[in-house]
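help with this:

***
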Amino acid sequence: MHKRNSGGIIERTSDQHRDPPGQWPERSPRGKVYLVGAGPGDPELITLKGLNCLRAADIVVYDRLVSPLLLEEAPSQAMRVFVGKGPGCHSMKQEEINALLIKYAQQGHFVVRLKGGDPFVFGRGGEEALALAHAGIPFEIVPGVSSAIAVPAYAGIPVTHRDLASSVTIVTGHQQHTNTPAAVNWEQLAKLEGTLVIMMGVETLGQISQRLLAGGLSPATPAAVIQQGTVPQQKVVTGTIENIPERAAAARIKSPAVIVIGAVVNLSDPLTWFSTTGPGSAQQGHGSAQQGDRKGRPYYTRTCQADPSYSRGDPCGRPGRGWGFFMNQLKIDS
């Protein structure tokens, strides 16, 4: 049996009410890894298959932007392992994450690799899947709701519209290993019609804006930046491609955020539907976003003590945000 908690998410009443293990999802005696998209932030946006995988997991290896409410959906005895990455600070290198997934699967465990958004949309899921394939590890991909689509929708911005945009281009604004715009031909993108969605581009928004303008994009082109989309602390700043860097800076917009450029941004005001009720949250960039879920707990925890050999706390040496996971440990022999 399941019921809805105070946050609205469907939850188990206890572990004994779970579907019998071995029926669905498929379990492998050799171990198996499910690369699961957790969605853009709101825990209710995970898919049914993703939720079922969580509820059957032995081990959950999860990212920084995964809601704690989703981690609660795993069995109480399951081990939670934090491998999150933030701007300029990684708790674990990607190669180490790959090796960790292989190690747990080789030991016969049902592993859920829980990733924000969709694993294959700037989530490095392709790299992890290749590592598993090369190691001969069985795996499945469970797509998630991408923040590239869902976050604009929660800001009242459809990325396509019959009268305004018949195409959408999704790009990354982050260059690997450097603090410069990604190796994207921004000048060429400026010539495309339709909507441009930029992921991980807040740190380089000023440079991106300059290059799009240099490519011929009209300075009056509507633009929006949405911070912490789909959660109550969502914060939206709108303007034009010319002034959006200044407006985002004035509103102290930080990662995680999605940038949307194109005529569809003008629909944000008439199509606003999502209430940002958290402390300090606001539309159009007023106030300062705070991190928390519907129960008042932080969304983005940085402390996890499960497998002592892989718990590193905050990778940047900062104190935790007041709510960590101290779960029953499952002993994993090397």
Remarks:
- The first strand starts at residue 2 and ends at 4.
- Residues 15-23, 278-282, 284-334 have pLDDT under 50 and may be disordered.
